[in-house]
Amino acid sequence: MAHQFYFNPYILDNLPAPNAGFDVVQDISEPRLRMYVTSRGVKTFFVRKRVGGRDRRLIIGNYPDMDIEQARAAVQNVLDVAAQKPRVRRRQITFGRLVQMYLDARVRRSEDGMVKLRRAIARHLSEIMDKNVSSITGDDLSNVISKISGPAIAARMQELLQSIFKYAIEAGYVKSNPAADLHRVEQRRRVRPLTRAGMVRLIEAIEREPSPVLRAAFLMLVYGFAPKSQVFAMRWSDLDFNHYMWGARPLSDAAVVLLQDLPQDGNWVFSVRGKMRLTDPRTSWRRVAADAGIPNLTMDDVHKFMMRHLVWASGAEDLRENMNALIEEINGLNI
Question: Which secondary-structure segment (H or E) carries 194?
Answer without folding.
Answer: none
